[in-house]
Amino acid sequence: MKERDETSQVVGLLVLDYGTPLREEDIMPYYTHIRRGYPPTAAEVERLKKRYRAIGGTSPLAALTAAQAQALVDALNASTTTVRYRLFTGHKHCAPFIEDAVTEMAEAGITEAATIVMAPYFSLFSTAAYFERARRRAARYGLTLHEVQAWNEEPEFIHYWTNALEKTLSTTGRDASVAVIFTAHSLPYHVIHMGDSYPACIEATAKRVAEAVGLTSYHMAWQSAGVRGDWLTPDVATVTKKVADDSTVRTVVYVPIGFVCDHLEVLYDNDIECKALCDTLNLAYTRVDMPNTNATFIEAMHRAVLRTGIEQQR
């Protein structure tokens, strides 16, 4: 660790994420907020409770995000002597909300902060909304935010997924009997029609990782779509069934490159639903390890924050 100048200025590290219910009783208000004040039906709430119970009662998302954020601020403070980063976190759909975190920063005397969303791909539907909410509250205090708009092109991000897939393929093999499906969270079609770059960025990342491990063929699928409206296709179930049409395929490797840690969409939508479908189709189910607090993955965020130039402006 570098020796820090005692006069180093304190700057904020504002980590934003989606949020998750911490207890069963949090499910109703959480999903009501997601639906902009329209509560889910009793049947929908019960279905959600069953999904959480199936993965142990609650999602590990909150704990993993906190650990990722702490690892990131530790990496930043270990690599610089010009500033000292202080961590603040805000959630999109539960307390402390994004606005709460910005207010907390201002009340702590912070005047500048690097801001990163725990979602590596820019999207009009998701990450843009995080930044807009943070900006509006920051303007109230004259607080300057240095935004990491996206970080999926950081070399360490690609390296993480390449290494994770290589590790899995070293176990399953990489011949014609093994099919690889890259997955990411779906988006409503109306957002795609607005020109959202998210699908293209996901597909570009999948292509880079596939090329890095030497795959000559792979599949792209979308998962975890909402229950209302039209969402981006093909969905993961459709792609899995298509893979099963090839009689040579015996194993499916899922690579959830749209997500950054173990949580409901991975532990249930992949590990339970996709596995059940694979069982039905007589296919072996395998999934690569999620990034969580992997050092290479944390370094991708570290480099992305440094690229905002917040340290050079001191």
Automatic annotation (TrEMBL):
Please list the residues that bind Fe-coproporphyrin III.
Y18, R35, R51, Y52, S59, Y130
Q: What Gene3D superfamilies does UniProt report for this protein, alphabetically?
A: 3.40.50.1400
Q: Which reaction does it catalyse?
A: Fe-coproporphyrin III + 2 H(+) = coproporphyrin III + Fe(2+)
Keyword Protein biosynthesis belongs to the record: no
Which sites bind Fe(2+)? H185, E265
Subcellular location, in the record's words?
A: Cytoplasm
**Keywords of this protein's UniProt record, alphabetized?**
Cytoplasm, Heme biosynthesis, Iron, Lyase, Metal-binding, Porphyrin biosynthesis
Alphabetized SUPFAM superfamilies for the sequence: Chelatase
- Molecular functions per Gene Ontology: lyase activity
Q: What broad class of enzyme is this?
A: lyase
What EC number(s) has UniProt assigned to this enzyme?
A: 4.99.1.9
Give the pathway: Porphyrin-containing compound metabolism; protoheme biosynthesis
Job description of the protein: Involved in coproporphyrin-dependent heme b biosynthesis. Catalyzes the insertion of ferrous iron into coproporphyrin III to form Fe-coproporphyrin III.
Q: What's this protein's family per the entry? A: Belongs to the ferrochelatase family.
PANTHER family attached to this UniProt entry: FERROCHELATASE, FERROCHELATASE, MITOCHONDRIAL
Give the protein's recorded name: Coproporphyrin III ferrochelatase
